[in-house]
Amino acid sequence: xxxxxxLGEFPRADRAAIGYVLTDIDDTLTEHGRLPGESYMAMQxxxxxxxxxxxxxxxxxxxxxxIARQWPADGVIGENGAMYFRYLxxxxxxxxxxxxxxxxxxxxxxxxxxxxxxxxxxxxxxAVASDQAYREADLAIDFCEDVAPLSHEAIQxxxxxxxxxGATAKVSSIHVNGWFGSYDKLTMTRSFFxxxxxxxxxxxxxxxxxxxxSPNDAPMFGYFPNSAGVANVLDFVGDLRHKxxxxxxxxxxxxxxxxxxALLSAR
Length: 267
Prior knowledge:
The chain is an alpha/beta fold. It is about 35% helix and about 20% strand. The strands form 3 sheets. Strands 1-13-12-11-2-3 form a 6-stranded parallel beta sheet, with helices on one face.
């Protein structure tokens, strides 16, 4: 893995060429679990400047419906790539696209329920994430959002239980998310570009920035040449299969604002 470069070394010409901003939410846009006005305004300013803004998150479908409707965003990828939502304002209609159909998601839910029971019985202090009721495709196990932080070893034990059942497991800054299937944030982002925007993402990837902070962002860090980590990505550097190219000075929401300012100042 190559070393990360300070955001200040992101060439002005490359920043000026950026037309799309993809961003994780938790601990990238948020601070201590809240979305501060500064990061929301940064998204608004990017959107008003003509950039396409797309949150790419592990958060649930229920949250994604609100984000697609009410945030200054052109769509949202949710549950680590299980779906994308795009609100077509002119038609007053929500476009929803899933990696798996309803019957497949129901069958997966039964298997995920068994994993849930094993995790809760085997890993003291773990809990089902408080946003689980609004999820359509995955199981989220909380290791620090609404519970006392678990050890790295306990988190890896949760991952191992998912994997033993044949599920994919990804670690975010707050949850272990597990699902059945080979999709991830990157695969659904590619589908969003092709289907919702009618754009070949491969041809446009030099004009795309992705901002993130944790191991479940690694596929995005590895694919996009202009990926950026907010400074708290350094907390996970040993667990990252792929690192971001750039890293901000500030953590979390303040790091995202730093990135937004860098992009806007080059335009």
